[in-house]
């Protein structure tokens, strides 16, 4: 059975941690064979070796070394990994410079050990890529895909096949099955219609299919249901196309949804345990207070720079639509020229000429969002949730996009699943994709998903990938 993408990532993390520990042990063994170094203080050497090893793994994560698809191009992975090693060495030397000089000035020994951490990092730079290569060769983490058959040859099947043909797909489609005899032999997305639903059990067995993707939007006939049950009894998973796409892309695809989807799936997701809402609100308040205290000097400096570099107020207020459709006032540092909407309300674009040079930096680093911590404290917003939209756009989007109003089921957030997964939004089509990510968050919201989003947001900020 082929591992899922989360399972593959878990294997990679386990391999990395195991190899890191092995490198630290090996470093101690090598140093012990050098008489002049054999008496090194073990506790300090071990602590800093582990600390810098974990820093290396963190930097590697920020540099996308945990991306499964990177293993399909091993040299791309090596570039990312060795780039992470270089950053870690720089941080290592910087911290040693600070601690070592301070310790020397006081007449003590260097405050940061060098020998074992340096040897362990050098070993890890070589050993971890080799371990990943070996595991990939044994388990096929980067290359193995699940074999599947697709039942149905309509629009949903076409959309799924387009996704399955991409580099990031987890499927290898062996064939399409449809009960329309006119479609037999038809090639859709590079995959042939090879039979009818009655042929499913035999086709699944012959090609070794692990899943059947159910891309049928109409009522199925009894013979098709019987064939699916036979496949299920043979150990083949039956996965609705919407659920398969949701699992793979992390969003709820609108093209696979019908009128029957909303009541049983989305409304049922509101049965969230009370402790989640209470703990989420408490976490929002504590985090907002802590970050406000830590970033207040940065916010004041940024506000001063905004005033000095362009005309107008440093802060910007705007009405947005919040939970249950209620309007509220959002606060931001101004990143555009004064009176940017003198000609009327318009979409912000990625390379918007109204954005000031300083404003571009503030957006990239997300510093312009810091005043929204006040909105979090007031209860207008949460740390994590769908980004609040302007009422002028909401009225238009509700008319053009199905289920758009579903976003108002939760508090809007400073950051969200759509922000860490999708590019800049400046059109109705982009907003549809953004909504798919928002629906995924609302349907699957949990404290763990919130932590994942906050981690990805930190990664975006640290790597200057913000918009």
* CA-based gyration radius: 27 Å
What is the number of E strands?
A: 10
Helix content: 40-55%
Q: Looking across the biggest beta sheet, what order are the strands in?
A: 3-4-2-1-5-6
Average of pLDDT: 81
Tally of contiguous helical segments: 16
> Strand pairing plus helix content: what structural class?
alpha/beta
Strand share of the residues?
A: 5-15%
User: How many domains, as an integer?
Assistant: 3
- SSE order, one letter for each helix or strand: HHHHEHEEEHEHEHHHEEHHEHEHHH
State the separation between the terminal residues, measured CA to CA: 40 Å
Largest sheet properties? 6 strands, mixed
Overall form: flat
| Low-confidence region ranges | 102-110
What this model shows, in words?
The chain is an alpha/beta fold and 467 residues long. It has 3 domains: 5-139, no CATH class; 146-249, 3-Layer(aba) Sandwich (Rossmann fold), CATH 3.40.50; 274-462, no CATH class. It contains 16 helices and 10 strands. The strands form 3 sheets. A 6-stranded mixed beta sheet has the order 3-4-2-1-5-6. Helix 7 (222-233) links the parallel strand 5 and strand 6. Helix 1 packs antiparallel against helix 2 (42-62) and helix 2 packs across helix 4. The longest helix is centred in the middle third of the chain and has 36 residues, at 274-309. Mean pLDDT is 81; it is low at 102-110.
Q: Short summary of the structure?
A:
The protein has helices at residues 5-32, 42-62, 74-105, 115-139, 155-164, 200-207, 222-233, 241-249, 262-266, 274-309, 357-365, 372-378, 391-400, 417-421, 428-444, 447-462, and strands at 146-151, 171-177, 187-188, 191-195, 211-214, 237-240, 315-321, 327-333, 382-384, 413-415. The chain is built from 16 helices and 10 strands.
């Amino acid at each position: 059975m082929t591992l899922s993408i989360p399972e593959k990532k878990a294997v990679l993390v386990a391999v990395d941690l195991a190899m890191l520990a092995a490198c630290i042990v090996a470093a101690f063994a090598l140093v012990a064979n050098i008489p002049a170094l054999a008496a090194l203080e073990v506790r300090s050497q071990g602590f800093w070796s582990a600390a810098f090893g974990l820093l290396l793994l963190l930097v590697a994560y920020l540099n996308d070394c945990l991306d499964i698809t990177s293993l399909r191009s091993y040299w791309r992975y090596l570039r990312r990994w060795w780039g992470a090693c270089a950053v870690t060495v720089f941080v290592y030397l910087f911290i040693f410079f600070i601690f070592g000089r301070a310790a020397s000035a006081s007449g003590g020994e260097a405050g940061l050990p060098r020998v074992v951490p340096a040897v362990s990092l050098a070993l890890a730079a070589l050993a971890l890529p080799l371990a990943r290569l070996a595991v990939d060769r044994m388990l096929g983490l980067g290359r193995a895909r699940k074999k599947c058959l697709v039942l149905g040859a309509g629009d949903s099947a076409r959309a799924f096949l387009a996704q399955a043909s991409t580099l990031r797909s987890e499927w290898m489609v062996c064939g399409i099955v449809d009960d329309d005899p006119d479609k037999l032999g038809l090639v859709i997305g590079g995959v042939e219609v090879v039979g009818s639903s009655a042929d499913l059990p035999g086709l699944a067995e012959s090609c070794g299919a692990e899943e059947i993707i159910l891309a049928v939007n109409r009522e199925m006939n009894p013979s098709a249901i019987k064939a699916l049950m036979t496949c299920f009894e043979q150990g083949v998973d039956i996965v609705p196309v919407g659920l398969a796409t949701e699992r793979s892309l992390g969003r709820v695809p609108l093209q696979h949804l019908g009128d029957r989807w909303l009541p049983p799936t989305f409304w049922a997701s509101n049965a969230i345990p009370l402790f989640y809402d209470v703990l989420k609100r408490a976490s929002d308040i504590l985090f907002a207070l802590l970050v406000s205290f830590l970033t207040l000097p940065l916010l004041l400096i940024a506000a001063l720079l905004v005033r000095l570099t362009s005309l107008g107020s440093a802060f910007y207020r705007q009405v947005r639509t919040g939970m249950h459709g209620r309007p509220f006032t959002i606060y931001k540092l101004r990143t555009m020229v004064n009176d940017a909407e003198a000609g009327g309300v318009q979409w912000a674009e990625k390379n918007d000429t109204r954005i000031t040079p300083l404003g571009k930096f503030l957006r990239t680093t997300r510093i312009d969002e810091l005043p929204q911590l006040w909105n979090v404290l007031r209860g207008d917003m949460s740390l994590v949730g769908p980004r609040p939209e302007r009422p002028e756009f909401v009225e238009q989007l509700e008319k053009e996009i199905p289920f758009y109003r579903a976003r108002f089921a939760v508090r809007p957030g400073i950051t969200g699943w759509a922000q860490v997964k999708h590019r800049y939004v400046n059109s109705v089509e982009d907003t549809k994709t953004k909504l798919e990510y928002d629906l995924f968050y609302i349907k699957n919201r949990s404290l763990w998903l919130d932590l994942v989003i906050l981690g990805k947001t930190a990664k975006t900020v640290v790597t200057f990938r913000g918009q």
